[in-house]
Amino acid sequence: MLNGQKDGFRKPFHALAVDDNTLILLDIEYLLSTNGVSRVSPITDVADALKKIMEDRPDFALIEYIIGQQTTVHLAIALRKMNVPFSFVTALAEPFELPPMLKGSRVLSKPYSLDQFNSVVHDLLKLVVGQD
Fold first, then answer.
1. Deepest of 8, 17, 65, 97, by most Cβ within 10 A of its Cβ?
2. Is residue 8 included in any domain, yes or no?
3. Does residue 79 sit in helix, strand or coil?
């Protein structure tokens, strides 16, 4: 099992988790805690997420691609401009087109396995540590 402390990540990490399904957010929050992430900000609305990152910059983020009727592209662009590593999380069956600034973004497909989730989180944590 991946654990931030055991993998040499000594920093108390703060993650942003954005999804419009509260049960999924609870699951993500739990899985992040088992990976050594000390603080998770679960958000269900894009506007609230944009406000949150301006007030309290996360170390990394997991964001659903579609919240309600809108995409989270503007949130992803804001995170990219702030150098906050992130991964889209989506249940979309079809590939989706990203703007050029977001090409190459990580995408975690739902449903995901524990190994897939842990792998994405581990990759994001490595990027965070590399930024320090």
1. 17
2. no
3. helix
pLDDT tens for each residue of 104-126: 899 999 999 999 999 999 999 99
Q: Extract the tokens encoding 45.
A: 């609305």
Task: Give the C-alpha separation, 99 to 118, whole Å.
Answer: 27
Are the beta carbons of 16 and 63 closer than 8 angstroms?
Answer: yes
Q: Are 63 and 105 in contact (CB under 8 A)?
A: no
**Do residues 105 and 77 lie in contact, with contact meaning Cβ atoms separated by under 8 Å?**
no
Tell me, what CATH number does 90's domain have? Answer: 3.40.50.2300
Q: Quick check: is 2 in a domain? A: no
Quick check: 86 and 105 in contact, CB under 8 A?
A: yes
User: Does residue 29 belong to any structural domain of this protein?
Assistant: yes
